[in-house]
Amino acid sequence: GAGVSQSPSNKVTEKGKDVELRCDPISGHTALYWYRQSLGQGLEFLIYFQGNSAPDKSGLPSDRFSAERTGGSVSTLTIQRTQQEDSAVYLCASSFQRVGANTQYFGPGTRLTVL
Amino acid sequence: EDKVVQSPLSLVVHEGDTVTLNCSYEVTNFRSLLWYKQEKKAPTFLFMLTSSGIEKKSGRLSSILDKKELFSILNITATQTGDSAVYLCAVEGRETSGSRLTFGEGTQLTVNP
Question: Does A27 touch chain B (CB under 8 A)?
Answer without folding.
Answer: no
